[in-house]
Specification:
Two copies of one chain form a homodimer.
Chain A: H1 7-24, H2 33-45, H3 50-57, H4 61-73, E1 77-81, E2 89-93, H5 95-108, H6 110-117, H7 121-138
Antiparallel strand pairs in A: 1-2
Helix pairs in contact in A: 2-3, 2-4, 2-5, 3-4
The structure holds a DNA duplex (30 and 30 nucleotides).
Chain lengths: ~140, ~140
DNA sequence: ACCTGATCGTTAGTCAGAATAATTAGTCTG
DNA sequence: CAGACTAATTATTCTGACTAACGATCAGGT
């Protein structure tokens, strides 16, 4: 059994703080943090139900619903009944949503990108290596 | 100017999700997430004012105050007037606070540690290299 | 010696983003 | 075809952050 010393605590603190900072610097867009995230998933992975979307983001369906409702209101996302299963609603990113997401992401990332610019290529490399590990740590269940 | 491609978005998503997971798995203690964090800072860095404590955690004084008030109520932290500056109050971790924090951290980290155990030594190494970078990204101002 | 402006802790009020529990509607199975 | 299950939704709550404002204290300049 490996000996991690302070790694769990350090990792926890680093992630907590960075997450706070990212949320704080989210002022550049009309869409909230989780809304952009939801839209991005629909863009990347195509149409899906609310359940699937919530699962991918690692939150509960009611939590996801709030974001989705706003996105539908703005007509960035369309909702249509599932062809064969009347309980399901298929969520699809609209043309308009497609148009705005890149721009929104661009502006939202200004703060983070500025900070990344201050890093050395080696540090960027370390971050890129760390990313898949962080995603694995963040998986639900397992 | 380096070309980061999807790094900002990926980093944002990884950090956001892991942070959510960490908060979710906080059921093992009577203290909330930020309360343990504040106590840990007082343990690691000694007595300080509310201002300093808030600054170290990267949040505003009113936000920090809530945690501190609870910690004082539980007698895990003591408050005493500053010797020369009547406006300031020095916060100090008590014997009792000292006693409980390690145990709390131990239990709270169970979930995270189990996941870290599943990583290879190389992956642990990458994480350890990434930590200081994440902390730097999380700094305020700059 | 005394204003003036800054700082510290604090209170009040607000907001976002998550959760749980319960409701409604549709589907499937035995 | 009745009961169990599943999907979306609603209602409610909680946590953790924020800003604004206030009283007390301090420090510096005239």
């Amino acid at each position: 059994m490996p000996e991690f010393g302070p790694l769990p605590n350090s990792l926890r603190r680093a992630v907590t703080r960075l997450s706070r900072q990212l949320r704080r610097n989210n002022d550049f867009t009309e869409l909230s943090f989780p809304q952009v995230s939801a839209l991005g998933i629909l863009l990347a992975h195509g149409s899906m139900t609310l359940q699937e979307l919530a699962e991918r983001e690692g939150i509960t369906p009611p939590s996801m619903l709030k974001s989705v409702q706003r996105l539908i209101e703005l007509e960035y996302v369309g909702k249509a009944p599932h062809e064969t299963d009347g309980r399901k609603q298929l969520l699809t990113i609209t043309e308009r949503g497609h148009e705005v997401i890149d721009d929104i992401r661009e502006r939202r990332n200004e703060w983070l990108r500025a900070r990344l610019d201050a890093l050395s290529p080696e540090e960027i490399d370390v971050l890129e290596q760390a990313l898949p590990i962080l995603f694995r740590l963040a998986e639900r269940d397992v």
